[in-house]
Task: structure prediction
Amino acid sequence: SQFSVSLNGYGIDFTASTASIVDNISPDLASLDTPYTCGVTTMNLSFSEEILCTSVQSSDFQVTGPGGSYTVTTVSGAACNSGDQLEQNFTVTISPPLTFEGSYNFCFVTSSGSVSDLCGNLAAVTCISFSIAGVESAITSTTHVNCFNGSNVSSTVTPYTGSAPYSYLWYTLP
Result:
């Protein structure tokens, strides 16, 4: 019967059974929380399922893009940090900061071993592409030089995208 007057549910006895519960689906690097802005040093990522905290190392990840290769220095997950065995969402710290505009790749490369789920299924090597837009700004005021070779020039630039702190280079012609 599929109906019982009991509110306690059913008991299932597997002692004389050959049944097994099988998980043969590998975890995948599922997503990055984008968009990211210029100067980012941390990124949030998710796997398609929970993976063993002890199987994740910073050397399992690689970030490439404008400016060369970047180092993933730490990988952490809230559940792992609180002592749990499994986690699906992680935060990685990257060095140096991503300061160039352009297209990047965040890759799972399994350099330090193998990221796996509780059943031992290994995550496949994969990459996720993302972009960082440059700082957009407007020149809001300019004071021109009074005399040739003078030094009384100034300009005010107001950024309206990106994240502080900002820096600039001022070039003069000889």
In short: DSSP finds one helix and ten strands in the chain.
